[in-house]
Specification:
Blueprint: H1 5-19, H2 24-38, H3 46-57, H4 61-70, H5 72-90, H6 99-108, H7 110-154
Length: 157
């Protein structure tokens, strides 16, 4: 029987790292931060952010980057909602732009896209900063007992 893509690419590597001695708490923090840093509303920045977090906090670099990789589609999906929440938070006019338009603009001129979206992106980052700690905390609280249980199951009796 073939294992699913997520099991092969996410679950197995995480379980393997647990077997190698990574604590469930460090693994849960790595995964939770990989998630919240992976949805940071600045395209092209998440790999570096995750690497910095892993080094500074002494977390598992492969685990944090695996999650960062998996949440990339979610980052794209949440980009416009973060922009809209930033508009609401800062009471700025609606900036009509879609993810496809941002992608097309960036391919034409990345610098002009950065300049065009600077204020909108900055506002989205502020909203992310306000939401990220709660999201990370929730995922950490959920993942820690799950990973402890997984480690107990993996350990020889």
């Amino acid at each position: 029987m073939k294992d699913g893509f997520l099991k092969r690419r996410l679950v197995r590597p995480v379980l393997s790292l647990l077997k190698q001695g990574v604590t469930p708490e460090k693994m849960a923090l790595s995964l939770a931060l990989g998630l919240v840093l992976g949805i940071f509303p600045v395209l092209g920045s998440t790999t570096v952010l995750c690497a910095i977090a892993a080094v500074v906090l002494r977390l598992n670099l492969p685990a944090i980057q695996i999650v960062n990789y998996f949440v990339y589609p979610i980052q794209i999906i949440l980009l416009i909602p973060f922009f809209r929440l930033g508009e609401i938070a800062f009471q700025t006019p609606h900036f009509p732009v879609s993810a496809a338009e941002i992608y097309a603009l960036a391919h034409v001129s990345l610098w002009n896209t950065v300049l065009l979206l600077w204020t909108t992106t900055w506002h989205a980052v502020v909203v992310w900063v306000l939401l990220a700690p709660a999201v990370a905390g929730i995922f950490y609280a959920i993942l820690t007992p799950l990973l402890r249980r997984a480690l107990r199951r993996q350990s020889p009796a």
